[in-house]
Amino acid sequence: MTDLVSILDGNTFLVSDRRGDIEPSFDFPTGLFSFDTRFLSTWLLTLNGERLHALSIDDAESYRTRFFLAPGEPTHYLDAKVSVIRSRAIGGSFHEELTVLNHSGDTVEFTLRLDIGADFADVFEIKHARQKKGRTTASVNGNELRLTYRREAFHREVAITTSEPGEIDVAGMTFRIRIGRHGEWTTRLHVATVVYGARGEDIRATLPFAGSRDVATIMAEQNELIERAPKLGCDCEPLATAYRCSLNDLAALRYESIALGVRLLAAGLPWFMTLFGRDSIFTSLQVLPFLPELIPPTLQILAGLQGYRLDDFRDEEPGKILHELRYGETAGFEEQPHSPYYGSADTTPLFVILVDEYERWTGDSQLVLMLESAVRGALKWIDTYGDLLGTGYIWYQTRNQETGLPNQCWKDSLDSISYADGRLPGFPRATCELQGYAYDAKIRGARLARTFWNDPEYADRLEREAAELKQRFNHDFWIPDREYYALALDADGRQVDALASNIGHLLWSGIVDETRAGRIVEHLLGPRLFSGWGVRTLGDDQGRYNPIGYHVGTVWPFDNSIIAWGLWRYGYREEAGRICDAMLSASHYFDGRLPEAFAGYERSLTEYPVRYPTACSPQAWSTGTPLLLLRVMLGLEPQGEHLIIDPYVPEGMGRIELLDIPGRWGRVDALGRSRTPTDARRPNP
């Protein structure tokens, strides 16, 4: 994605090359997308039949970009007598202003051509090219070109209009223009996307949607959100830059869902611009101390779409929290199960964790009472459908063997769960972090039951079950001769013995026996897992290790933020600080925007973190990472009606001051300064 330029507003986004052009692609989602459909697959500008090249690009803001262009090859720029400024913005619909500037002393005639096309590809069709089953038509009416796609009730349209008269045909627009000496010519193009039709049997959108907000409205909405966040003052420039970038991207990733009528966070550009249960929950946990008002819509939607039946196609089960919700053609016609799809085993316990953490920060007991049934249903799922083998653990195995996800933990690629020698276990599988989430969910569920639901008997039962789970887990998953927890158990109860970053999530959950925490910390910060830029997803001596493998050796910022939180929980403040420092150092090389993942090469081999070629950016839980790292470094923890502030700032980072931290206590300030390594706290779980 390094040679591509994107702008976005919620889940409407545009990806082009560095000239601003879009050409049809089934390798990477270039084009104009909204609600999982590509509305523009061709948007190609020529001047006198010649392609343009970029002189400069102004892409400082997420929702608008300007391209400064000239015709010919770069070696000819000095002789260019004409240039083009391409200014674009996105706000539900897409706007582009084309300005041609004549730099000569004579009147000149030009032919400006914009080739336009729409393949209406579903986002899943970008990854796996398919023959379209519907029919696309094009029509011209005055200054408008309208492209329409229909397949039964599924109906998508894109309408392109121009402010200046031109020759419009079904494949684009041609402008024959005459510009005086040192003069200029401008046209404004408006692209409206229109959505009709059903998205599946459970959720329907029967009204047309044609979102359009002007740039001023977008700017005002984003600025309003950013202004509500705490104010950061610090001596560490990478932290300051990452914080600003995170707030900007969080504002940009919000979208209004069709028919559901609330603003939600999309998971990541370009592949995941929709609601993801796991991503939404983790991002909510990261941003909770900063923008708690973003959390209730996510919780309410996840509760509203909670599974209520057995549906093998969608991997749906009673009480289960969804994995992914899609709006495109393949979901609408059940060629993919994402309407919604429930193929994740971790979202359900994580949902309970988020409900509790939200109340602890905000004191919003009304939402806890409103969600009681959903939380009880989620806790019941853990012990019933989640426990496929009746062993007291969460297992997963897709019910949909054709289009379901095989791996239903956060590392959901095909080869992510393996033995140390690289072999893949069969199904079902019980990954270690799932058990930690279940333990934490039971502890937190007990607090909710005792404090808000007036059900002490249920609370006692949950606490008893959590204690039993912790004891059983520490026996079954611990590998004595290697002194770390197995990545998973296979269907026969054997340990899947790879060394992976998942063990850091165990610290966050609290399921790790206190006597073993030190060894886990040593592994996480040891040379096999810690690259110097962060904790790798898989140890570098493991059979499937690949520094540029999606879940088998790359470094994921979100993963590292949860690990840092876990280190903090067990009192390993200096070690947590090392991860915070590594992540913020890496963010500097990504201009403050941490990507989905980057390569796991040893830091001594590279002067900068190496990009993962197809990483999403921005991605919500990477965007939330600097915020959670701030919480860890400042030692922020709600306790009753108060916020505990116990900072440990890594050496060399200087002063960190966070003002107006919101919560049930009102708004408070936190201040921390770098300490020397001898000041590090030791375990006090």
TrEMBL record:
InterPro entries: 6-hairpin_glycosidase_sf (IPR008928), 6hp_glycosidase-like_sf (IPR012341), GDE_N_bis (IPR032856), MGH1-like_GH (IPR054491). This is Amylo-alpha-1,6-glucosidase. Residues 395-593 form the Mannosylglycerate hydrolase MGH1-like glycoside hydrolase domain. Pfam families: GDE_N_bis, MGH1-like_GH. It comes from Micromonospora globbae. The lineage of its organism: Bacteria, Bacillati, Actinomycetota, Actinomycetes, Micromonosporales. Coiled coil: none annotated. Residues 8-189 form the Putative glycogen debranching enzyme N-terminal domain.
